[in-house]
Amino acid sequence: MNVSASNQTYSKEAVQTAKNVVTSLFLALKKFSLYPEDHNHCQTAMVRLQHDLETFFNNDEKLVLHVEKDRILFEDETVHEGEAKEGDLGFALYRDAIYKLTFHKGIDSRQMDLFIRILNQHRTLPPEAEGDIVTALWEAQLPHLQYEADDKILEADLDADLSHSEGEGTQESDFYSTLEMLLDAEASPAGSHGDRDLPPLEPRSFQLTTGEVETLQEMVRRAEERDATQEILDMLADILKDQRDEEYFDVVLEYMEEELQTALGRKNFDIALRILKRLIQIRMLCKESTSWALSRINKFFLRVCEPDFLTPLQEVWPTLSAYEMGKLKLFLLLLPPKAISALGARLLEARSPAVQRMLSEVIVSLASRDFRPLEKLLDSAEENLVCFLVPLLGRMTDEKSSKALVHMAHYPSERVRKQALSAIMARDLWVPDELISLMDDDNSFIRQLLMKYLGSRRSQTAERLLLDYLRNRKYRDTEDEHLSACFRALGRCGKIEAIPFLRDTLLKGGWISRFRVSALREYAALALTELGTDKAKQILVEGSQSWFPGIRSSIRAVMQA
Fold first, then answer.
1. CA-closest candidate to residue 525, choices 496, 476, 490
2. pLDDT at 295
């Protein structure tokens, strides 16, 4: 008897504590519907909810709530009573076929915050449904929150709604009766009704009333708006969760492959993005428990990366709006880096600068995850495509892209070499040892770029390379401009080692040569001016006071310039 009394007392306390939790849950949901999620009111409501949960878990390990159409129960006691209408939490759960919620001890504020966000997002059903509470909870994978759902709990209500709705239910029922009668008459051979004679059919009986036409149109609209793609994706998730029907899993994946390619051709990028996101989520689950599904999904993604799979995009480039381009970009960013080869082909197709810019950004992002596909494409692609790809290397920062960029600076095509050298300078890569061979490039613009590059900073490496080049090079009379650039670069990058060479070039030589104007003496004076050290200035002063007019003229020409 005492035990019974104790249990009764505990049960009343538990019911009240559970009611406090549900009240706080509704309060938090209300705050989230009225204020931004980071508002103080929302945060205060979440603190209260977490406190009430912890109070309940002081005496029990789990809180089990049963959901009915217009109320929520705990231990057969009503802890919330609402209305069967949109916006009510109990009805929203019931509407999405959830009949039981279980909160386990250990549920933290992060999980409850996500749970409230899900409820707030789905408490009313939007005109174009994009998921439900069950799907959202399955995706969230909250470890201390369990739910049980069954679509059968809605069947009785659905039948009642169809048969008892005012006017519309009767009309739709009559419409079905008419269709059944016509089908029976068409399918049954003459005399199959035995002794029962069928009444003659009047032509008017085949005509639909205005109400029946409206009903038929509504039925068609519902069928068209039904999100078959989402249902198939949910089916995949269920198959995976139960770890069964491998063959059927293959069939559904094949279907999704066709749906995805069709969606791309029709610019339904929202659907394409949804398919890829859900398959990525399922793939993450496969890593933990289902190897057979993982290999199949990996194969699916490899198929999507093939050039012919993205062929439908070829027709849509000219008509893409800014919104569609944004959605397509999100889709492409979810592809594996192996898709870089296919996207490279699309890069040549797209004539729109905006589309080319978008594809370039996607390729750079994918290459940052795995550079090998882009490296392979650079080695095998034709010159036109390489000219598109090399500037993309200038936007990257990793070591592999740096090496590839230096490699492309020695590409057979002058166009590619120019782009590579420009990209190296834009990235501020300092590799003079690997570029010095371009000093004698056939293209004058490339030589000028290299001189600008070598003279961009003080560097003993660049100074040594230029000194070796100038000391050992035999000059032709037609190379005055090139030599001038070399000496100027030496002055800009030099420190100490260049001083003796420049002094000898300016002040020394045969008696006769020092009486004549010399281009080399002028270039040496130019380099000393660019060097700008005290020692360099001292040499220039010495030259300006020289007895030899050729030396004085060289310095005067530089100073005047």
1. 490
2. 85
- The residue with tokens 């045969």 is 510
Alpha-carbon distances, residue 25 vs 86, 226, 251, 338 (angstroms): 17, 32, 42, 46
Distance CA 113, CA 281 (A): 21
Query: Which range among 139-143, 356-360, 541-545 has the greatest average pLDDT?
Result: 356-360
Please write down the HEC assignment for all residues of 137-169.
Answer: HHHHCCCCEEEEECHHHHHHHHHHHHHHCCCHH
509 has pLDDT over 80: no
Is-contact 286 293, C-beta < 8 A?
Answer: yes
Sign of the C-alpha dihedral, residues 388, 392, 398, 403? positive
- And the tokens for 419? 């782009």
Q: Sign of dihedral through CA atoms 16, 21, 22, 28?
A: positive
Output the CA angle 130-133-138, nearest 5 degrees: 100
pLDDT at 520: 84
Q: Which two tokens stand for residue 89?
A: 């939490």
Question: What are 354-404's pLDDT values in tens digits?
Answer: 999 999 999 999 999 999 999 999 999 999 999 999 999 999 999 999 999
Q: Is 124 exposed, middle or buried (0-12, 13-18, 19+ CB in 10 A)?
A: middle
- The answer to whether the beta carbons of residues 389 and 344 sit under 8 Å apart is yes
State residue 494 phi and psi, 5-degree precision.
-70, 160
**Helix, strand, coil in percent for the chain, rounding step 5:** 70, 5, 25
Taking the alpha carbons of 370, 372, 373, 378 in that order, is the dihedral positive or negative?
positive
User: Which region among 179-188, 218-227, 462-471 has the lowest average model confidence (pLDDT)?
Assistant: 179-188
Per residue in 220-258, pLDDT tens? 555 544 455 666 666 655 655 555 567 767 777 888 888
Alpha helices in 167-290 (DSSP H): 168-187, 210-225, 228-242, 246-265, 269-289
Q: What pLDDT, in 10s, does the model give residues 393-450?
A: 999 999 999 999 999 999 999 999 999 999 999 999 999 999 999 998 999 999 999 9
- Give CA–CA dist 339/398, Å, rounded: 20
Enumerate the domain spans of the chain.
2-156, 430-561
How far apart CA 396 and CA 367 sit, in angstroms, is 9
Q: What one-character-per-residue DSSP string does 481-539 give?
A: HHHHHHHHHHHHH-SSTHHHHHHHHHH-S-HHHHHS--HHHHHHHHHHHHH--HHHHHH
Q: Which two tokens stand for residue 70?
A: 């217009």
The answer to whether residues 39 and 21 touch, using CB atoms and an 8 Å cutoff, is no
Return the half-sphere exposure (C-beta side, CA atoms, 13 A cut-off) of residue 194.
2
**Separation between Cα atoms, residue 354 and residue 243, nearest integer Å:** 44
